[in-house]
């Protein structure tokens, strides 16, 4: 336990150091280039840094509060993300009860089942039970207009915002020999590597980006940014092997997988925003986007990270 | 004495519980587009689709504005039980008017003007009733014109409430969480010699211009 705390505090100190440096750079850029706040790139950078401070503070408090704290934190993240996602879906009055059930029954049940460590049930609740029950609730209202589209969007909202996101706290319940009591560091590893990959892709893209990966979708995502960001985040992930149950080589492989999943997750979520005709998912920070804008990559990489770790390292 | 202190305290707690709940469900955000959140006396006029409409406006007003802003609401609804009376009178400090012209004893317009004369800002819904149609707005009733004519020095601020009708459709007890915005637009006043019809039309246009583009009538409908 003490080992966990020591490692966790070392990691936290490192992150806070990085954030102080980033805030300093952000402040200097703003003073030097656009003190009146009319440079969108710098304003966006500073908003991101602020969001990371918030994320770090919330995660640190939740980690210190233990399993209950982490589960509660991610239940609220799921709630906020689902609220943003459902706002952008096609709904009709007939969907009211099905959507209410998604928020107030399925979501709490998912996190309660994770708390109970009932793996068989929480991994089936949304893909099996919600998948069958919600369309039944909706169909009983006898409104068939756009029915397939409505129920598909409802299911997608739950899969992304609740099912995928809940794999982050589920990491706490893996039973890895020799790693007992340190599972919270798996969450830290996942989030730190994926978020760093986001910022490094952004930085490399701003510095060298010439060739967009998907020009119609997101002109800011370039091959230079992708390769530079994934490579440097994988390097950092490798250097963090000591907080994980992995060897350095395994940590490198895991980092590569989750940064790539994160990148494609961001791309998929951009496509959905394009489709819905919006720039951001919400307004968590006024004018700077919503929860999903900051968490899309973590949400996509979490289930893959969970299952790889579970399959190869866990006893459960 | 205990009673005297206890009731305002309970009203304060209830008010905060209601705004916290509104934020939890809607993550409501104010957009000040053409007017600033400053403590000037105003009549906010908004579209009306849900019983929660004035709660959302009240929630996004900064506390110093909120304490001096009173919704105008139907006494025929708010005085029907002790709980509603407590919320309507003590929590929201509403100007309660009787919408039933046959049974009422007070003149609604006089109550509204009395409210303005105490220095309060007001929240009114000029459509008169909740809009259950597919049209973005129902035709405005005359009250808003009468107010501006009688108190021409008070600004009328259009307020568009977006998405709340999906959060709490009529007849559903459980709200569904969706993001909502409340957009405040540039103030208007009845000009000297302006006719009732012209002013009401202008007020409707001012309010509709704040709606998101997908909810505005397209050009064909306007031309027709």
In short:
By secondary structure, chain A is mainly alpha-helical. Chain A has helices spanning 2-33, 40-65, 67-87, 96-115, 119-139, 147-164, 167-170, 184-208, 223-239, 248-276, 291-313.
Structural features:
heterodimer; A: mainly alpha; 11 helices; globular; B: 224 residues; alpha/beta; 7-stranded mixed beta sheet; disordered C terminus
Describe this structure in words.
The complex is a heterodimer of chains A (316) and B (224). Chain A has 316 residues and is mostly helical. Chain A has helices at residues 2-33, 40-65, 67-87, 96-115, 119-139, 147-164, 167-170, 184-208, 223-239, 248-276, 291-313. Chain A contains 11 helices and no strands. In chain A, helix 3 packs antiparallel against helix 4 (96-115) and helix 4 runs antiparallel to helix 5. Chain A is globular and about 60 Å long. By secondary structure, chain B is an alpha/beta fold. Helices cover 41% and strands 15% of the residues of chain B. Chain B contains 10 helices and 7 strands. A 7-stranded mixed β-sheet of chain B has the order 1-7-6-2-5-3-4, sandwiched between helices. In chain B, helix 1 packs across helix 2 (53-60) and helix 1 packs across helix 5 (82-91). Classes of the chains: A mainly alpha (316), B alpha/beta (224). At the A-B interface, helix 3 and helix 4 of A face loops of B.
Q: What is the fold's blueprint, element by element?
A:
The complex is a heterodimer of chains A (316) and B (224).
Chain A: H1 2-33, H2 40-65, H3 67-87, H4 96-115, H5 119-139, H6 147-164, H7 167-170, H8 184-208, H9 223-239, H10 248-276, H11 291-313
Helix pairs in contact in A: 1-2, 1-8, 2-3, 3-4, 3-6, 4-5, 4-6, 5-6, 8-9, 8-10, 8-11, 9-10, 10-11
Chain B: H1 2-26, E1 29-32, E2 42-46, H2 53-60, H3 63-66, E3 69-74, H4 75-78, H5 82-91, E4 95-97, H6 108-117, E5 121-124, H7 143-150, E6 155-162, H8 164-167, E7 181-184, H9 196-208, H10 219-223
Parallel strand pairs in B: 1-7, 2-5, 2-6, 3-4, 3-5
Antiparallel strand pairs in B: 6-7
Helix pairs in contact in B: 1-2, 1-5
